[in-house]
Input
Amino acid sequence: MNVENDVKLYITSIATSVIVLLLSFTKKPLYYLKQSVTNKLFLYGLTFICFALSLQGFLQYVGVLSSNHYNFSITGSFENPAGFSAVLSLLFIAPAYITFDFNHEHRCTVRLICAISSLLAFVMILLCGSRSGILAVLATLSIMICHKTYFLQTLKKHKWLNLLFSLIIIALLFVLYHLKADSANGRLLIWRVCMDMIAERPLFGFGHGGFLANYMHYQAEYLSAHPNSPFIMLADNMNHPFNEYIKLTVEYGLIGLSLAVLLLYFIAKKIVRNGSAIEIGLSLIATVAIQCMFSYPFNYAVFTFLMLLLLLYVLPIKEPKQSKAYTGIRISISAITAMLLVYICFSCYNNTSVQKIF
Output
């Protein structure tokens, strides 16, 4: 098993099952879930986890702790920097929000601690060299600054600043590209080959696992047809296209991609209409969108779990009217979840226990 990822998957699955099971015994499960998530202790908890993960990365960087990958000095508790930066960029939203939340009941000491946690997380993402993580964190900072300060008014008053910031963004993208030029060009090759796969089955795609099962064949065909391609030295055995949108299109076609875009649109619309903690909602959308563009965040169960928790924080939840049907649904969910919890625990024990062979 993959120690860094599979153990997290089991822990996340067990935690989710326990939460659902406990809530299914209450008469107003959605209400209590929303109340728990919107409590300020929830954001404090995410801030603590953000600081702990960042501190682990720092200790790996200075050599106190060992990394989980021989090529990278910073991986946190993950097998490579991709998972570390993806999860840390999501956690970064909580301390950044509290830091810029000047008009709330957070004490100055708490905001200072959150500012330190945010700074440490940002530095760790910079040091691990994750370009998607850097863009995601900068997007979160931009949203917080625009919504919590007078920055937008300043831009409207001094329009020449718009040109300056546009040039800064272009320069940043140029620097990030050249930071790992070979890696960026390798992804361009993967995306080019994926275009051939999408053209082959544009509507419904190749089905679940279709990228892994078919990519190498299409890459070999492309390189045979383009022997002078500058990307030929960058070809490799790939199990992900480093882009969740392309992977979704390859496996489920344009129909699957359209459904995902519609879902994202309705979520964004709900967040904007709700108006509660809109900075968290917009930062969440930006972080997920950027990570999905250049990485594979949904390979990590922790990322999905944190994303759902933050969605619960910003989305309005209405409790259905009490009825026999609703009670029956709650009982059914509790029974199914209990069986699922037993299965997960049994599977976890079998896959993680060390059996001695005599």
Observations:
- The first helix runs from residue 3 to 24.
- The CA atoms of residues 193 and 219 lie 6 Å apart.
